[in-house]
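Researcher: I'm preparing a figure for a lab meeting and need a structural model of a single chain. I don't have an experimental structure, so a prediction will have to do for now. The sequence is pasted below. Please return the structure as tokens so I can convert it later.
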Amino acid sequence: MTLRYDLAPTPVGTAIAVLSPLGLLALRVTADDDRWVLEMLAREHGVVPDHAPGAGSDLFAQLDEYFGGARRSFDIELDWGLTRGFAAQALRAVCDIPYGETASYGEVAAMAGRPGAARAVGSACRATPFSLVVPVHRVIRSDGSLGEYGSAPEAKRFLVDLERRSSRSAASSPARERSRRT
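Model: Understood. Here is the structure written out token by token.
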């Protein structure tokens, strides 16, 4: 299988997309050296992609729209080949958390059909191959605190705040106000 990767800057670090013939296989965001992320993907998942500038252009355009507040979800095919078992179920459940909202690890476990598996949800979120496009940043602790986000909890705060601001501004837009009055 031919794997390709592409890189793009985002407000939370460099996005590294690994693409397979089936779709997006992995998306990691790092403030570190991107070679380290590629080595980690190779070690953890056995993937060694070739650099293909432009391969991620559709995804990166959608990321730009997301960070600009114009996109609430991603329209990109995902290759779930790096996820298995309950981790895949949990990550698919995370996709159902609405933009601008959060859910606890326990709530996601229940959504995935295993109500006592909050810690397993945490493990799935930590190990997700799909940063940003599977919104694990929307999963929080049961006490309402944000918790970790890999080694970048400030990125999680940024993403949650970005979505909340965008949700509030969309809810109070003039067009929305007119539609409420009619």
